[in-house]
Fold this protein.
Amino acid sequence: MTLPQLSAVTELFKPITWFPPMWAFACGIVASGVAMDGKWLLAAIGIALAGPFVCATSQAVNDWFDRHVDAINEPHRPIPSGRMPGRWGLYIAILWTLVSLGVASLLGPWGFAAAAVGLILAWAYSAPPFRLKENGWWGNAACGISYEGIAWTTGAAVMAGGQMPDKRSLLLALLYSIGTHGIMTLNDFKAVQGDRQMGVRSLPVQLGVQSAAGVACWWFMGLPQVVVIILLFAWGCPSQALAVTVLLGIQLLMMDYFLTRVVQRALWYSGFGVPFFVAGMMVSAFALRSLIS
């Protein structure tokens, strides 16, 4: 049996994608208002679970079930290129699912349940019969909930000893999950041709490239941040609200530039615009920490 090279396995797991859920888990830790004394190891396990385990699993699952689409859009990837031979992509996805559940058991009932839900969504996103990614509305929602909402909520709950997080924390997690729906759409512009051929109804396929970009920017990424700003002012955190306002203003300028040439600048906006979005997440988390602690 031919074994895959370590470099192919690493590429299959896509480490660059681990940052969003790891960051969201860290935001949940901050938003919990709980002191870190004696909980550093717990926090480290949780952050690792969100990235190198659950998120990495989702990438492996996605690449296996997307191998036919990738053969059109991105034939250089490990599976369609042959660097991940045979059914090794599937075997690794199953193995890493089980390893992730084992790591999650170290975080108690909340951590295990959250990881299980995240892994179920990961498989439902890519695998038949659900294959949520075939409809951009449902698939992007599953990613937003997993990458941001579940990770943030789990971080807050684990740090609080398994207690239900503050309602304000849950609300922020929901708003940033909605925002991530738009961020996920940015990944779809490079694959429009292959998606059309394979029947994947991403938002660019359903709405057209220009309309999908506008919906992603204004309705999914922009509007939830406006709500966050309003909430921070209402909660008595004016300095943090102003900081998020500035971060949103920068994003709006970059969105305007992105929307003039959507396909050519989608990757650019993902690299340079999205960091201002995630910075606002941490600012909001610290605002909540100041209210709770």
Q: What stands out?
A: Residues 8-292 form a domain with the Farnesyl Diphosphate Synthase fold (CATH 1.10.600). The chain has one domain: 8-292. The mean pLDDT is 95. DSSP finds 15 helices and no strands in the chain.
